[in-house]
């Protein structure tokens, strides 16, 4: 899908508060966007938690908001796979 089509698809399904910040990945901007979206959706009174991919900017953004951050479990268990898969000794041990 072309970037412009993705932008249009996101714009159609995204609340107004997200549209302005959709491509801005700085922690402060993300924190503002998260807070605005939670308020717009009426979730701030429900003690929400934010699940992210554990990227530093996302973790920092959630910390700025004061909300609970939960790291994505799939991203956490996938993290060590990449360095391990490049280990020559492991490949030799497995006979690959």
Automatic annotation (TrEMBL):
It comes from the Eukaryota. This is Uncharacterized protein. It comes from Dallia pectoralis. The lineage of its organism: Eukaryota, Metazoa, Chordata, Craniata, Vertebrata.
């Amino acid at each position: 899908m072309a970037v412009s089509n993705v932008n249009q698809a996101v714009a159609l399904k995204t609340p107004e508060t997200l549209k302005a910040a959709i491509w801005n990945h700085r922690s402060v901007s993300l924190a503002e966007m998260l807070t605005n979206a939670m308020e717009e959706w009426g979730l701030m009174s429900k003690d929400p938690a934010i699940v992210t991919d554990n990227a530093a900017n996302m973790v920092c953004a959630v910390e700025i908001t004061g909300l609970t951050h939960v790291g994505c479990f799939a991203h956490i268990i996938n993290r060590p796979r990449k360095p391990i898969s490049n280990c020559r000794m492991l490949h030799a041990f497995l006979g690959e």
